[in-house]
Amino acid sequence: MAGGVADEVKLLGHWGSPFVTRVKLAFHLKGVSYEYAEEDLHNKSELLLRSNPVHKAVPVLIHNGRPICESQVILQYIDETFDGNLLLPADPHERAVARFWAAYIDNEMGAPWEKAYRARTAEERAEWMKQIVAAVDALEGGLRECSKGKGGFFFFGGGGVGYVDVVLGSLVPYVHAAVVLSGDRLFDAGRTPLLAAWLERFGELDLAKAVLQDVDKVVEYSRAIYARNAAGVTS
């Protein structure tokens, strides 16, 4: 596998992007050293535009001069390419289940959350948040199933952090910020006790402390997005 001293590993990102954060989490778990380049999303670099000409978005991983785009594709590439802890299970069925829940998080939580961020009214934002809450309720069952018989319900991978934990973990600062911004406690101990315990346990990891954004900074960033959209300005 790759990951030797000759490897050139560069990540193009933006500090506020949870999709970039999950790549950073994967690198930290694998112990991979990399160069990070912060992108101005209002004035994208030629390197970004050249490396991701289809979506023109972060994250982009450039490994030995070759770009890889889309966060979940990047995670799987990292898992297959670099030595260290495996993110995806070795068992094919368990691997398929992990991919399902990771896709679910992006499609059923991430996509509505993006809509909520871009909403121009409080009413519109509240409707999208209802969809997110419903998705979280289903995810509670996913955590119960994925971690069953594997040393407790703390992580989707069972006893240790895995692929789904990395995907969901990238949203942790925004889960905490939602409480401040709108009072929405998405991982509520009464409604989703397993996810509430997962949230606390994940936040205690050295991995999370090293990589995740400061919640106050995320709150400030989110409020700025809300204000721009309320004023009818596209970000």
From TrEMBL:
Reaction equation(s) it catalyzes: RX + glutathione = an S-substituted glutathione + a halide anion + H(+)
Classification via CDD domains: GST_C_Tau (cd03185), GST_N_Tau (cd03058)
Domain GST N-terminal span(s) in chain numbering: 7-86
Location(s) in or outside the cell: Cytoplasm, Cytosol
CC per GO annotation: cytoplasm; cytosol
Origin: domain of life: Eukaryota
Alphabetical list of InterPro entries matching this protein: Glutathione-S-Trfase_C-like, Glutathione-S-Trfase_C_sf, Glutathione_S-Trfase, Glutathione_S-Trfase_N, GST_C_Tau, Omega/Tau-like, Thioredoxin-like_sf
Pfam family, one: GST_C_2
Entry GO MF terms: glutathione transferase activity
E.C. numbers: 2.5.1.18
One GO biological process term: glutathione metabolic process
Domain GST C-terminal: 91-233
Protein family according to the UniProt entry: Belongs to the GST superfamily. Tau family.
Protein name stated in the entry: Glutathione S-transferase
Organism for this UniProt entry: Brachypodium distachyon (Purple false brome)
